[in-house]
């Protein structure tokens, strides 16, 4: 009997591992928001919840996550190089989908009363981006649909944005334009598929 059970146990362990891998793998087409939400069951619902809670448009929040991590759940900044080839320390403790710093994440957990939130969980990550953008709207007087300036505030911090620390960073302005363009692309794509995503969300909510 024991020998007969071993193959079954191994099979179940293998299935569990494969399921976990699929759950955390990045979407196969990160440039298409409809493809992302169709592939990643539950992501649209989490994004919609964050949009309704914080007033930050889904395309803007998704464009920020796309830029920060390409939707890799455990992303970290690349290590520096010592003497050009020896792996050195990482430039910061940024981590996860939103590439949030430890200190910023703790501020979010306290402010939003989400002490169990994790940066490598998509629902928590997009809620964080929504919270941060909402704070940028209030502290930096940025419109909720102004992805360009919202990303500048996301990168520089609210104090840095208000001091205009980005003015001398031409590279950062280029990145912000890129994020803004991605948000516009996501907006056009979402307009064509959101009705079906909403229907699926309502259907799944029944069970």
TrEMBL record:
Keywords: Signal. It holds the Pfam family SLT_4. Gene3D superfamilies: 1.10.530.10. Residues 11-193 form the Transglycosylase SLT domain. Transmembrane segments: none annotated. This is Transglycosylase SLT domain-containing protein. Residues 1-22 form the signal peptide. The keyword Signal applies. It comes from the Bacteria. It comes from Microbulbifer rhizosphaerae. The keyword Transmembrane does not apply. SUPFAM superfamilies: Lysozyme-like.
């Amino acid at each position: 009997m024991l020998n007969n059970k071993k193959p079954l146990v191994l099979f179940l362990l293998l299935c569990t591992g494969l399921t976990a891998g699929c759950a955390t793998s990045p979407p196969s087409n990160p440039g298409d928001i409809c493809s992302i939400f169709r592939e990643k069951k539950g992501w649209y619902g989490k994004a919609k919840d964050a949009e309704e809670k914080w007033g930050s448009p889904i395309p803007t929040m998704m464009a920020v996550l796309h830029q920060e991590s390409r939707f890799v759940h455990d992303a970290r900044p690349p290590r520096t190089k010592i003497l050009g080839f020896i792996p050195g320390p990482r430039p910061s403790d940024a981590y996860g989908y939103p590439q949030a710093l430890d200190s910023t994440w703790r501020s979010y957990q306290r402010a939003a009363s989400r002490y169990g939130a994790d940066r490598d969980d998509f629902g928590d990550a997009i809620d964080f981006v929504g919270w941060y953008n909402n704070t940028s709207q209030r502290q930096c007087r940025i419109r909720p649909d102004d992805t360009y300036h919202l990303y500048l505030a996301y990168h520089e911090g609210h104090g840095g944005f208000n001091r205009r620390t980005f003015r001398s960073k031409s590279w950062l302005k280029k990145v912000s334009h890129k994020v803004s363009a991605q948000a516009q692309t996501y907006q056009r794509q979402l307009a064509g598929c959101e009705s079906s995503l909403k229907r699926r969300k309502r259907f799944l909510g029944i069970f």
